[in-house]
Amino acid sequence: MHIIPDTLALIGNTPLVRLKGPSEETGCDIFGKCEFANPGASVKDRAALFIVEDAEARGALRPGGTIVEGTAGNTGIGLALVANAKGYRTIIVMPETQSREKMDTLRALGAELVLVPAAPYSSPCHFVHTSRRIAEETENAVWANQFDNIANRRAHIVGTAEEIWAQMEGRIDGFTCAVGTGGTLAGVGLGLKARDEGVCIALSDPHGAALYDYYAHGELKAEGSSVAEGIGQGRITANLEGAPVDTQFRIADGEGWHWVRRLLDEEGLCLGLSSGINVAGAVALARQLGPGKRIATILCDTGFRYLSTLHDPAWRAAKGL
Ligand code: PMP
């Protein structure tokens, strides 16, 4: 037992847990990286810390400065907690379709919240473009730009991948996760491949995202839709460039929900839908690689963030889940 010197040092070094149900069902060992154990309760704390420290090192973020970002919520929470710990202000632009818990958490952290209607990336009203404009118009402000700022994936090359490698004692056959910015998939993929070229890296793409077709057939093409927050990408972000993807799965929300429910009922783990989609992807990868393999995935955030959505039966019924 030891004492952590400050809040920022709580980011990363998350536990890795063996998931009993998915392992028993496949005859493999399937492990989940507990990113909900970060202080902001999601995988995005890591990217937030690296993006802020990179901006400081470049001299782009100066004392009294403001951090501006467009986010589905978790990156905003990570940025707000890092900003509070370091004495910066945050302005967070978020689509109004995201969970109320994320908005309330951002407000509690003191972030200035700008809600915009959900709009396609091609629209100037999209949350990413809105956040860039606000950053340009605000004095002493930096735009975090998580999608195309590769400080994001560096957090996973030097952090998440190295932790998984050490926790699994170098015995790992496969890794999979879904993509929001691509920081996690590309960063963990690059980090694990640098350790062992033979680790199979798999994309788990929700419906409505364009990456499954891109990695399978070289064409960005989206079909259907998903209610999962924080994932589902339609373009090759700078973070995704050069991501070592060996195989890919398209995962329906229903399969993701199946695993969220089972992990809650059978193992007492309360997760969000992107974690369920990742676990469904890990099960698909286990079936592809065969019994006896060791596979890791990401448990992206806590399900307590979705009590008014995914974990509410009325919400699920309205969404057909
Ligand atoms: N799951 C959730 C709940 C998220 O908020 C995010 C980040 N948007 C992801 C998964 C995907 O992570 P990344 O941005 O590293 O692709």
TrEMBL record:
Keywords: Amino-acid biosynthesis, Pyridoxal phosphate, Transferase, Transit peptide. PANTHER family: CYSTATHIONINE BETA-SYNTHASE. InterPro entries: Cys_Synth/Cystath_Beta-Synth, P-phosphate_BS, TrpB-like_PALP, TrpB-like_PALP_sf. The keyword Transferase applies. Pathway: Amino-acid biosynthesis. One of its GO terms (biological process) is cysteine biosynthetic process from serine. It comes from the Bacteria. GO terms for molecular function: transferase activity, transferring alkyl or aryl (other than methyl) groups. The keyword Cell membrane does not apply. It comes from Sphingomonas carotinifaciens. This is Cysteine synthase A. Its cofactor is pyridoxal 5'-phosphate. Residues 10-301 form the Tryptophan synthase beta chain-like PALP domain. Pfam families: PALP. Transmembrane segments: none annotated. CDD domains: CBS_like.
